[in-house]
Amino acid sequence: MSARSVLSVLDRNKYDVVEIGITHEGAWLTGQDALAAFEQGQTETLLPASLLPDPSRPDLYVIRNNNFEKYTAVDVYFPVLHGTYGEDGTIQGLFEMADVAYVGGSVIGSSVGMEKGVFKDVMSANGLPVIESIVVLRSEIEKDIESVVKRAESVSGYPLFVKPANLGSSVGVTKCSSRSDIAEGLMEAAQYDRRILIERGVPNPREIEISVLGNDEPQVSVPGEIIPGADFYSYDAKYVLGNSELRIPAPLSDFQTEQVKDIARRAFKAVDCCGMARVDFLLDPQTGEIFLNEINTIPGFTRISMYPKLWEASGLSYPALVDRLIELAVERKAERDRSVHQYRRNA
Q1: Distance of CA 259 to the CA centre of its chain
Q2: Cα–Cα distance, 332 to 92 (Å, whole number)
Q3: What distance in Å separates the CA atoms of residue 71 and residue 44, rounded to the nearest whole number?
Q4: Domain span at residue 97?
Q5: What total of structural domains would you count in the chain?
Q6: Which of 105, 170, 193, 208 is most buried, most CB within 10 Å of its CB?
Q7: Are residues 330 and 229 in the same domain?
Q8: Is residue 250 located within the same domain as residue 170?
Q9: Do 202 and 208 contact (CB within 8 A), yes or no?
Q10: Does some domain include residue 301?
Q11: Each residue's pLDDT tens digit, 206-234
């Protein structure tokens, strides 16, 4: 859905667009109207494609008869991918090894932003407010789940949230109100990751989001608020039910607005993010406390997604936003090119 939206606004008088689809098994396929081929289940018309981790051969290759053939040169890669292998620094690492320009977060920004436990540690080290939590391992759950449940209950009273540490879109997230809920939540989260985050639940939190855009000097949008159509902003509430409500701008005080903007900017810079990110907050309605929840380095990108809508409300249209992201990718590549990768002793 996000890819379709981005493709719809790319100016074909300005850009020659090459579409690359990725199968569930991880194979890259390219060709004419790759998106349509994927949607219609007719990928046999496409060619296997590959980007080599070789800076001397930065072009896109296709595979014919088990041989690599140059398909086309590519100036900028625009990864419209969510979750594992797309938003966690892995594909960004491939882009870096191939020495190509790409839209969005750096390797470190993507990987730290994706790993919820490490992200919280980094934010705490930078003096930014996060909710109390612990990380447990899948092997610990399999060895002694009762011990892990007791450790979970030491974090705080109920409710507690159990989440895979490395995943997005609220996949594998469970809100727990009892000991049996925790056991079930741990087993659910352990399907998706070897590291599981257990976090104190904030009662009836307000969910606030900020969009960030830029490289070394990031800009921040007006804040928005999500009113979930379910008990919390689950996968179904995000993508299936369609009954969540967006409030733009969020009804916050001037002080709260400046507070979330400042934290969003600082979080973006703390993980050396670049290009774009959506920074999510939880606001405790009883105490007024604001907690930094997570940073999404490839946020949802449909026309109705919060990231572009916040920029639209801040005066930047969807097509202009896509253009700006491509410009930022080129700027970031130029900055990378200034670094020397071979040590030369002075004569």
Answers
A1: 22
A2: 13
A3: 17
A4: 2-103
A5: 3
A6: 105
A7: yes
A8: no
A9: no
A10: yes
A11: 999 999 999 999 999 999 999 976 565 54
